[in-house]
Amino acid sequence: MNLLIDTGNTRIKWALADGPSLVTRGVVEHADVVTLPKVWGNLPPINRILVACVAGPQIREAVEDAIDRVDGEVDWVVAREFECGVRNGYSDPTRLGADRWAALIGAYALGLVPGVIVSAGTALTVDMMGADGRFAGGIIVPGFRALDAGLRARTALAADTGAFSAFPTCTEDAITTGAIDALCGAVERVARRVAATGSTPRVILTGGDADRIASHLTVPFSRVDDLVLRGLATIASHK
Question: What domains are there in the chain, each with its CATH number?
């Protein structure tokens, strides 16, 4: 059994995997990171521990402390030039985030290529991968909460979050609708850009805020939860 850990900017998602299959899953908010030793206190015997971490140093240290109490070989995943069939097209492959790298590997392992891999969380990432497993690049924009709260915090606009509306008639709804439209627009522009090359990519949606934009996208898409963890499971099975 392998322990897989996706340490994001807001939450820590984890799973136990038997080969490529996720058999147990859990989520811990950053505010509750000190509970991880208890959460993982009764795990079955662990062979390997794979971690994709993009959180700051304090959260990383807390995760490291919890991992130290679990037996198993630890691998802090970093992006590579080539791994598990995926080739990294970044100008400096090591600068790609570990979570994006794992998600790409997960998408490739699941046969979801050519694809536009959309991860909606604290940030929205939209990554492009060809049928041959080559990561062709991607974009990063602030996620919903960063867009929504950031605008309110820097202006005298309404402080409360509104609702999506095709025709907003109050400031709260206008801000919320604008944030959702901006996120959907980023996804749809990248999808059109890829389609203009003659490819017909699948749009794959994952991440904790996927529900916020799913019903508003105007391009066909498939929802695949826990894509980072699925990628970590794939990496573990190739070790």
Answer: 1-110+232-239 (3.30.420.40), 112-223 (3.30.420.40)
